[in-house]
Every structure is written in C-alpha cells, then in structure tokens.
C-alpha cells in the first residue's frame, strides 16, 4: 500500500510535465533495486536484461531453474550485511517481507558472537547489527517479483545492449540519449559461466537486428564485466579512470539443506575462520538452506582439488567449528550426492570513476553496483554496495530532478564517501598481501633494496600497510574475540555501518587493542581462534581421499548421479558441475 501511494504522489507532483524515462542496462540486484526506487518516484523505467528468467513461484525454483550466464556468482555464497538490512527496512520493506515469508532469517550479530565473549549490557546501535540470511537467487527473485508488480516498470529480457546513443553537448562532452540493442536468439551459447557476447551477424529471421531505445538517463548495472569503457569510446567520450588490484584468491562453494536440528550449541549457523593458508565460512540461507565456502590462494595449486566434492567434504570435516553442520542427520547437499562444488577465481578489486574533477564523463549516464565498484567477495560487500549505490543515485535524482549533471555530481560525491572507503580497504589489504607473498618468493635483500631505490613511495605505502596488517592480525583480531567494545567496532566496519579508518583506528579502540597486540608480539602465548589442521595435514588428507579405493568405485557407478537428478524438478536444466570466473 505504501509503495503504491508513494508512486501516485510522485506522478501527481509532476503532472505538468512528461515523466522522465530511464533505461537500466542489467536486471540483476542493482538494476532491479534502482528500477523500483525510480518507478516509485514517478520515472518511466525500462530494464534491459541479457539473460532470460522464466516465471517461477519460489526462490527454490529460481535457484534450480534460472541460468544466469551474466551472473556467474549466482549460485555462490553471499552475505547480506547489516547496512543492507537497514536499507531494506527503510526503502524496500515489501521485498524484505517477501524474503521473510520464504524463510530468510534475520541474524543479530549480538547473538552470533565468538565463544566466551561477553558483550555486556545492550548498547545503542546494537539493533543495527543484523544480517539477512538468503541465497542470492532468493534476493533477486524477491526483487523481480516486486518489480514486475510495480507500475511504471517494463522489463525486457533476452536482449543485448551494444552501445550508447549520444550527441555532443555544448561543452564537448557526450550527451547520452539512449541505447542500441538487439534481441538474442532463444538459446545462447555459453561455456562454464563465461558470458557469450553475440556476434554482429543477423539471424535468418532478423531477430538480431539492431534497434534503439531513447531515454533521458541511461544507467549501467551490468556488473563487473561492464562494457561501459567501450561504450564511452564509441561515442567519443573519455574512458573512465580505472584502478585494479588482484584479490589473489579463489573460492569453492557447496550448498546444503538442513534436515534436522542444528548441531548442539549452534545458534545462527554463521561460522567464519582464517588460518592464513585457507579461509572458511558458512552462510545461512532462506528455506532451511546454507552454503559453505572455502577460499585459498590463487597460486596454491594443491588446493584446487577442493573442486572434488569428496575432497571438499573431507577438508571441511577437519575443522571442528564447521564439521557439526555436516554431521549425519543435520544436513545434506542440496541436490544430493552429486551437488557440485562451484569454483570462482581470477577476480580483481576494481573501481571505475565516470567523472573527472567532479564533472561526469557523459551527461545522462551513470554506473551503479559492480560496474562502478567491485571488491574482493571475501568481504561480502557486493550486494550491499550495489543496493546502496542505487539509493544514493535515487537520492541525488530527487535532490536535482531537473538537472541530471548536478544529480550525477551529487551521486559521485556520495559514492566516494560512502562506498569507496570500503573498496580502498579491501584493495589495500589484498595489495599488501600479494606484495608480501612476492617478497617471500624473491631472493630477499637485493630485491627489497632495489624496490626501495626504484619506487620508494610504493614501498613506504607497503610498509604502512604491513604495520596496519600487524595491528589488525595481532591486535584487533584477538581483541575482537575477547573485548565486547572491540567486537562491536569490528562488526560495524565489516557491515558497512562505520567507515574503516574511523571505526577501527579510533583512539578508544586502539587503547583497548594495544594490550592484545603486546601480548601477541612479545609473548609465546597463542590464541587458537579457529582450530583445524595445518596445511601439511590438509595436504595429506587430500592425498588420502584422492587415493582412496572408494573413489574408483564411486566414479564407476553412474546410478548415484541418476538418483541425484531424479530429486530435481522436472523442468530444471542440468547445471554445469564447475563454474569458473575468468578475467
């Protein structure tokens, strides 16, 4: 009711002039979020999506049936941070309520605390620390359901946007006035999650003929593989300033369904640990589902064996904090024994800035979500940043309804202060980690001295990053497991409620962390935060599984796979066993 009333109000307030038109390229989470917001403000919204999503009645069907070649992370673990939960409550209450009806839990982080930590009395701000548990498929399904019912939104799927339509403005900057696109054949070729970019050859029936759609504003919501740089060059505009930092990590994910009671002592099902050579986490989902993700260094080749379900299961069972969730009677792989382990790698932290000195590169064009800011998925900020960017753009357009250039300037300025600090923190951490790894792999002093001589600024930044890394690893991390105030500070930064620098390096936080830092650096006492095998023990375990006699017998028996298929809905196409993201 609220949504319809706000939409009517926006239209009645602008009845003296035609409604503005926006084309949103990309109908994923960012594109659909923006479509809902702008339609309720009175815009005429056209969403153009490359993938086709058949109508389904539930998140489970969406997870099984939707083939999102344009979103290879579609069936990987996702975290919906506390900042996103707050935004959903304020801007998308109907979407949030729909997720609740589908069994998506809200998880207070004051409940999911480290063992033995005493938070003390409830404090102001604790109510903001609430995660949302859902699969990405469920989140996108809920947004699409609401968008399809929202007046003013038209969604066209199975189309490929080739570029922008633009003319030169008086200042020489392109003025975007629409897009060029064509309809794709009913089925498109794809390989292991790598998007298929259609050729320019028209089909026999002319279905791939190029056409145009006019708009007052074009928004790029196509994600990290955005072609906006190429689009800008074709219309004579400047390329966006771009910065990239490799994440240096790849991920293995498997999904499960709970079949019984949670393990003894378990609360939310939210488990996370980092043992240096490996990262491990569980992610609660909607409808009694959850996923487990393991992350390893991109150059750690033996760990690639984790793409084998038997190896994956053996390794996670070696970690006491995770093993109970895979105990008999607690859960099963979501599609039976042959449920694949999905792989994602080759990712980079990347920021694209579509403005110079506060001036947009092209009037009438902006980018949101991963098309603008994409960071290491380990921090779980992708969806939160995408939805937040749409809120920032919606606010900017509301503040400057008659001046799209000023609206873009306002949007870029707020993105720099509310999104980019988290990108910088992620990229900085990965940059230091990769540099230290290369230093360890070099011949030592000579290479280190040569780096100082040739690039002292970079080396100084690296040393500062190392110092920050020592503070975080040996001070902040152990303090957050024992000090309630430090735990709150860390959780607020991780959940994008407080900026990284102000939240983690505040004087009050540093004062509480220093004793833990001193104990860690000057004492032999260690705090085993996440017990489990050493890397050598893990490698031996992997070798035993790979050489085990049951492996040959299982691979020779096709009946297991047939039984697994029989549990899937009849209309569900078979998914690839391995999804790999490549740059």
Shape descriptor reads globular
CATH architecture of the largest domain: 3-Layer(bba) Sandwich
Helix content: 25-40%
**Counting H and I runs of at least 4 residues, what is the number of helices?**
19
Structural class: alpha+beta
The first-level CATH class name of the largest domain: Alpha Beta
Total number of β-strand segments? 21
What would you give as the CATH superfamily of the largest domain?
A: FAD/NAD(P)-binding domain
Whole-number tally of structural domains: 3
Please provide a written account of the structure.
It is a single chain. Helix content is 39%, strand content 18%. Strands 11, 12, 13, 14, 15 and 16 form a six-stranded antiparallel sheet that branches. A five-stranded parallel sheet has the order 5-2-1-9-20, with helices on one face. It folds into three domains: 2-70 and 150-188 and 200-245 and 349-421, 3-Layer(bba) Sandwich (FAD/NAD(P)-binding domain), CATH 3.50.50; 249-345 and 548-566, 2-Layer Sandwich (D-Amino Acid Oxidase, Chain A, domain 2); 442-522, no CATH class. It starts with a helix and ends in a 17-residue tail after the last helix. With 583 residues, it is of the alpha+beta class. A hairpin with a 3-residue loop joins strand 12 and strand 13. It has 19 helices and 21 strands. It is globular.
């Amino acid at each position: 009711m609220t949504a319809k009333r706000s939409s009517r109000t926006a239209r009645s307030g602008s009845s003296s002039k035609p409604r503005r038109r926006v084309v949103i390229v990309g109908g994923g989470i960012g594109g659909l979020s923006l479509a809902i917001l702008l339609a309720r403000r009175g815009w005429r919204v056209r969403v153009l999506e490359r993938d086709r999503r058949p109508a389904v009645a539930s998140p489970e069907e969406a997870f099984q049936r939707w083939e999102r070649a344009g979103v290879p992370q579609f069936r990987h673990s996702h975290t919906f941070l506390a900042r996103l939960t707050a935004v959903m409550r304020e801007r998308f209450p109907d979407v949030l309520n729909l997720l609740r009806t589908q069994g998506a839990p809200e998880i207070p982080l004051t409940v999911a605390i480290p063992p033995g930590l005493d938070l003390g009395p409830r404090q102001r701000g604790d109510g903001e620390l609430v995660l949302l548990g859902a699969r990405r498929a469920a989140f996108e399904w809920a947004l699409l359901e609401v968008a399809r019912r929202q007046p003013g939104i038209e969604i066209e799927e199975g189309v490929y946007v080739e570029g922008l339509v633009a003319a030169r403005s008086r200042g020489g900057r392109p003025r975007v006035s629409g897009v060029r696109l064509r309809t794709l054949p009913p089925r498109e070729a794809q390989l292991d999650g790598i998007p298929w970019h259609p050729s320019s050859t028209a089909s026999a029936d002319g279905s791939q003929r190029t056409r145009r759609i006019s708009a007052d504003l074009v928004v790029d919501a196509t994600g990290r593989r955005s072609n906006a740089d190429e689009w800008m060059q074709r219309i004579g505009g400047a390329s966006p300033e771009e910065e990239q930092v490799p994440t240096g990590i790849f991920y293995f994910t498997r999904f499960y369904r709970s079949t019984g009671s949670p393990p003894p002592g378990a609360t939310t099902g939210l488990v996370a640990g980092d043992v240096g050579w490996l990262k491990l986490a569980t992610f609660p989902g909607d409808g009694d589902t959850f996923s487990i993700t393991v992350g390893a260094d991109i150059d750690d080749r033996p760990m690639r064996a984790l793409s084998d379900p038997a190896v994956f299961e053996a390794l996670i069972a070696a970690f006491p904090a995770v093993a109970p969730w895979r105990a008999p009677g607690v859960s099963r792989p979501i599609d039976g024994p042959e449920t694949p382990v999905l792989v994602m790698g080759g990712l980079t932290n990347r920021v694209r800035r579509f403005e110079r000195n506060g001036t947009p590169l092209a009037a009438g064009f902006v980018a949101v979500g991963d098309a603008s800011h994409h960071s290491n998925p380990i921090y779980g900020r992708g969806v939160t940043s995408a939805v937040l960017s749409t809120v920032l753009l919606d606010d900017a357009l509301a503040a400057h309804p008659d001046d799209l250039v000023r609206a873009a300037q306002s949007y870029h300025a707020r993105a720099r202060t509310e999104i980019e600090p988290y990108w910088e923190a992620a990229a900085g951490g990965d940059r230091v980690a990769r540099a230290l790894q290369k230093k360890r792999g070099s011949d030592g002093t000579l290479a280190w001295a040569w780096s100082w001589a040739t690039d002292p600024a970079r080396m100084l930044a690296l040393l500062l990053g190392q110092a920050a890394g020592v503070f975080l690893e040996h001070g902040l991390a152990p303090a957050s497991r024992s000090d309630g105030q430090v735990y709150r500070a860390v959780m607020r930064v991780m959940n994008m409620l407080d900026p990284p620098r102000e939240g983690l390096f505040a004087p009050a936080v540093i004062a509480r962390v220093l004793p833990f830092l001193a104990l860690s650096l000057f004492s032999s006492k260690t705090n085993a935060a996440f017990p489990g095998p050493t890397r050598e023990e893990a490698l031996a375990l992997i070798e035993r599984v790979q050489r085990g006699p049951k492996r040959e017998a299982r691979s020779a028996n096709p009946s297991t796979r047939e039984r697994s298929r029989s549990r899937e809905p009849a209309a569900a196409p078979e998914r690839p066993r391995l999804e790999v993201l490549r740059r």
